[in-house]
Amino acid sequence: MTEIPEHLLKRSRDRKAGGASSEASSAPVPATTEAAAPVARAAAETPAQKPVSKPDAPYVAAAKSRQRIPYWAMATLSLMPIFLFMYVRGLQPQKAEASGPIAIGIEQYGACASCHGADGGGGAGRVLKDGESQKTFPHIEDMLNWVYNGTEAYEAAGVASYGDPNREGGAHYPRSYNGSAMPAQGSMAGGGLTDYEILGLVCHIRYDISGADPAGEWAEEYEKWCSPESAIFMGLEDGSLNFDSPELAGVGTAPRLGTSADQDIAAG
To answer: Composition bias, kind Low complexity: at what positions (predicted)?
Structure first.
């Protein structure tokens, strides 16, 4: 067997190694890679297109195009209920605030309401509304005397009736209504009211509850006794007058027979 020299073997190995390296470097690029490269470059260079959206429905387009309400208008609209309330209140006639004797009477009537009713409709006590007070007491002096003294003082003095003895429907007697007694209201008769408070109470009953017209038939009485400018009320309030003063001889604190429109004042 012939032995191959070492230098020939080495040359053979070097040639093989060099040939494999050239084959590897000269190997063809796969067709798919070469074809994909231009496509990728074209895709990178082409700008992205926005997706095409469907047009809005007519009602959606109308809602989007509708003008929005300004914020300041919303604040104004929130105040509308208050403006409406004030407007309605402005349309309603405002009742004049009571003053003078009637204002005092309003404060005192609560004690009377338990018997005569909050509106004067009656109950344990007689009806006061719808002109009943004027029918029974054509003269305010008689009503003041009755309210001041009450049932027991009239009975003790032997005075049989109170108010107008010729009253339509018959005279009123101290216990003729449900057997109830009228409590005395005057301070000297066992009650708790002063003379000016009793005047205020009677004025409130006659003009607010019973409905006397201060500008009509009862104008003279109202001006003298129950108006805010009443000199009698101011005199009773400051203590310069009382029901027994000579100027008020028609009142008095002693129970007495009432008077009618055609009858002089008579002491009981």
So the answer is: 18-48
Q: How far apart are CA 147 and CA 66, in angstroms?
A: 74
The CATH number of the domain holding residue 129 is: 1.10.760
Whether pLDDT at 267 is above 50: no
Confidence band, pLDDT 50/70/90 cuts, at residue 126:
very high
Q: Is residue 2 part of a domain?
A: no
- Structural domain total, the chain: 1
DSSP SS3 for 36: helix
* Cβ contact 108:102 at 8 Å: no
Burial class (CB in 10 A: 0-12, 13-18, 19+), 173: middle
Q: Is pLDDT of 116 > 50?
A: yes
- Cα torsion 52, 53, 54, 58 to 10°: value is -130
Strand partners, 172: 162
- Residue 21 maps to a domain: no
* Cα angle 150, 174, 176; round to 5: 145
Give pLDDT tens digits for 12-54: 777 777 655 545 455 554 554 555 556 556 555 656 566 667 7
From 112, 147, 99, select the one nearest 253 (Cα to Cα): 147
Residues with Cβ within 8 Å of residue 122, at least 6 apart in sequence: 116, 128
Give the mean model confidence (pLDDT) for residues 168-186: 92
Of the chain, the end-to-end C-alpha distance in Å amounts to 183
* Helices H / strands E in the chain, number of each: 12, 0
60 band by pLDDT with thresholds 50, 70 and 90: confident
Count other C-beta atoms under 10 Å from residue 144's C-beta: 26
Q: What is the domain extent for residue 184?
A: 100-248
Q: SS3 of 193, please?
A: strand
